Amino acid sequence: MKRDKPKYKQIIDAAVIAIAENGYHQAQISKIAKQAGVADGTIYLYFKNKEDILISVFQEKMGVFVESLQEIIKNGESSTDKLSQMIDNHFNVLANDRHLATVTQLELRQSNKDLRLKINSILKEYLKLLDEILIEGMFKGEFNSTMDVRIARQMVFGTIDETITSWVMNEFRYDLIETAPKVRHMLLNGLKG
Amino acid sequence: MKRDKPKYKQIIDAAVIAIAENGYHQAQISKIAKQAGVADGTIYLYFKNKEDILISVFQEKMGVFVESLQEIIKNGESSTDKLSQMIDNHFNVLANDRHLATVTQLELRQSNKDLRLKINSILKEYLKLLDEILIEGMFKGEFNSTMDVRIARQMVFGTIDETITSWVMNEFRYDLIETAPKVRHMLLNGLKG
Amino acid sequence: MKRDKPKYKQIIDAAVIAIAENGYHQAQISKIAKQAGVADGTIYLYFKNKEDILISVFQEKMGVFVESLQEIIKNGESSTDKLSQMIDNHFNVLANDRHLATVTQLELRQSNKDLRLKINSILKEYLKLLDEILIEGMFKGEFNSTMDVRIARQMVFGTIDETITSWVMNEFRYDLIETAPKVRHMLLNGLKG
Amino acid sequence: MKRDKPKYKQIIDAAVIAIAENGYHQAQISKIAKQAGVADGTIYLYFKNKEDILISVFQEKMGVFVESLQEIIKNGESSTDKLSQMIDNHFNVLANDRHLATVTQLELRQSNKDLRLKINSILKEYLKLLDEILIEGMFKGEFNSTMDVRIARQMVFGTIDETITSWVMNEFRYDLIETAPKVRHMLLNGLKG
DNA sequence: TATGAATGAGTTTTCATTCAT
DNA sequence: TATGAATGAAAACTCATTCAT
Known about the structure:
The structure is a homotetramer of 193-residue chains. With 193 residues, the first copy, chain A, is mainly alpha-helical. Chain A has helices spanning 6-22, 29-36, 40-46, 50-75, 79-95, 98-105, 113-140, 149-169, 176-192. The radius of gyration of chain A is 18 Å and the shape is elongated. Chain A starts with 5 loop residues before the first helix and ends with a helix. The relative contact order of chain A is 0.12. Chains in contact: A-B, C-D. Chains A and B meet through helix 7, helix 8 and helix 9 of A and helix 7, helix 8 and helix 9 of B. The first copy, chain A, binds a DNA duplex (21 and 21 nucleotides) through helix 3.
């Protein structure tokens, strides 16, 4: 399996750095290869084309979020607790990897519609887990049982996304982690009403 | 003033259509010129370069939102009412112009970081008005007076943005306007808590 | 019409020279453009892509053969006379343009199967005229009236083609024109038998 | 001697199949190696480079023609008989190996001028035997004793070559063997005149 | 002998912008 | 003002060949 070989991850990580430092359109294959310490052609032994690298970046990194969230769902106490943990986790991961935050919040969005649709379908898995939490909470009476789940999900994800994007656009000038409890508090109010 | 001449608006509108129909990267100057019914070179009598067109598109169209919002602030009764009207207005305008919705929610985000930063600074005016409503509401006791305004703003804007983007990505398959009251309800709960 | 503009023919002629002097695979667009005295991009205002240039080269140049042959058919006396003139004309044109001879006999045959099929369909027009002469001659009793036209055509064309290709491969070391009467004589014998 | 080892012929045969099935430019070393059941690197233990494989393909396969022709010359009765047998043999071999026919008549001609010159020098041995037959025939009075041998040879070979190439280009749609007697008849007429 | 992972040179095409008319 | 022909820079990808094992 290609994705188990060391060079696979090596190239993925190089891509994140190259994109974060040079911008999406300036992250040429040659720059990614140089950053990874391999020849240009080597990239194509592990990835079909440039788009394949970008999708894989998203897939690999998103995988971390999905796995954490599955863990949280398994071990969390109440729905409220699970949602809180999810928010905290999302903030924590990106607060601790600014390269990755730049890539997911800013750079990867410059990709064309086609690539963005693929990225979105990867995102869906994460959002489905979020839906699970919301539905469970409605059922248990922790959240407003009459709310529209899709809109609730869009509020939760939209708020998290906008918060983090602003932080990146403001060049990490403030402490992202500190804002997490406030975001959590506000969202939970929205869901409970 | 260039922007009062008929061809200025003509080119702006042509750009929105060209981008919506062809996608950001396939909306070449020649296509915009053709759509506008002018020669390629003529574009450069009204705009410095391609980026200038895109910024102007955003500026002109955003202007409509800002003006409506100023009107709403002037005439709205309570802060709650103003916020509700703002949300409804935002949804209404884009629900009624799918070309514009496609361009602002999907296509223009493919622009490079530089352009997106400029677009963001245009957006600031709109967000400042939103902040006004929020602060007034906190002061009047309609919203939670201890909340962090920045985060509140990010929740309101992030939720609206995510909601509309999803609608565009789902190819307008459902009625956007119908979701407005639910979004409004949920956000107000978040702000009141 | 693009092919009436001076630059169209200018580029075609530049392509013949560039290919003859550098070889098919070494005749890059940049070399053709330089030879034509235009910018690389200008090529694409007149031709869809590189293959389009090569097809057009063949089409334009083959056109000369077809026109001459039509003239010969119109004015020639007997079928024997027409065939003789056709052979002489074919030899004369290429003997007087060694660049062209190199391109048609050697270089253009390096093109891929796809391009060669297109070239062949252009050639068909010429071969159809040759068939006309042969059929007329069979009818009039000048040629063997029981022969297989396809094979007769293949003999005539195959012999001419092989003769000229050998001359090119031998780097024009002997006088091609001098061989024409001998070729003519031998072919007519074959057809008469 | 390398060419006596089993893998040598194995690779040659694999090359013919790979080229016939994929086309000249799509027959990469890796495909030939795969077809031969060896690793890419192994190819280079038997051949200097890719060109060397192609030359060897032609050499080995042409060898069959040369040997048959030598046999024919040794055992044939008259010159006319020898020439007839040569034509029949040439048609028979290729009619019975369509892969080989595709490779020699179409694909190998896409090679660059350099390689084609080398291929031509291999062909010379075959053409020299053909010359022998022609000269003997002229001497014996079976063929026109005043004809130019080079042109006669070019007629014979050009006709055969064109006939077979057309058959391949027409995707083997008709029976090649059936045309042999007609070709033979027509050529002999040409030579006798 | 045999392997196959790694290398890196090389070219077509697009399109924003200019400028002579 | 308006035109549109001409410009030329810039980047992804392929594949023959090598060499450590």
